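Quick note —
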Amino acid sequence: MTGPMNTRRTFMLVAALALSAAACSSSGGTADAPTTPPSDRMQAMLASVDLYVNAPQRVGVGLPFGNGALVSYGTVSFRFAYTGTASQTTAPRPGPRATATYIPVPGTPDGAGSPPTITQPGEARGIYEATGVTFDRAGIWTVEVTADIQGSGPQTATATFPVAELPALPAPGQPALATENLTIHSKGVPRAAIDSLATGGNPIPDPELHQWTIARAIQEHRPALVIFGTPAFCESRFCGPEVEVVQQLAKRYANRAVFIHVEIWRDFQNQVVNKAAADWLYRNGNLTDPWLYLIGADGTILDRWSSLFSVPEVAAELQALPVMK
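Predicted structure written out below.
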């Protein structure tokens, strides 16, 4: 797939998390970061995209400071409010409240037992995620985050984000798209189009993630855990660690599902997207990644995760699947 495309992807949060990457976001999914945020005040950066009404969803927020430090570990509180539409604001209408738990980037400390703490990106990095949040109307919403930070006391920050009537991307309860993603059996394609780490003569890594197509899994009534990401080119630096986690899950739960990695780029240099990634994630001139999807044996999407995901949560959902015959 070629042509004009916004590939800013999932996060403006990335720059704020000081991960030394270009900022990225999905259209309408993330508020722009302040150009000069105060270095001593906590900021709130939305990490979730494609939020919609009348369905319980996960909402993730990163909590950076203007000086590059982050809030990590423990739990924080979320308080949501509806504020109108893009063309007409209203007085804030209180919405759900939730406790959000810290989700680390895979391979970084989770700070188990620690309260919210100011850390540097080299120490820890991640987001806070609330689950089961339901929005009752489309429009513009805010989330007010309160964190009781160890050694600093309570701090509050607010982020604004849109909520749509319907999901733009495939969502839980919908039929999965029976796409023919590239595998190690695909002929006449560059190896890097199967996995972006297979460049410069490198072999395709994680062969167990490149055996199945989504279409075949659906046809053979196999549950599938599908990670959409580009390990070599992911600006958020989340894709690589997340693909590694999915590989680990594939070894632990090989009897519960098939495991698939869909590379985003067929040709990164020329900005050509693999068709399977475009079919799932390209909407209205925007491409968002990474995403993780769990597809049931009947071909229905059971769950999905944007940006980061809780490894124990995903593992529990895999464990709950019946053993494959």
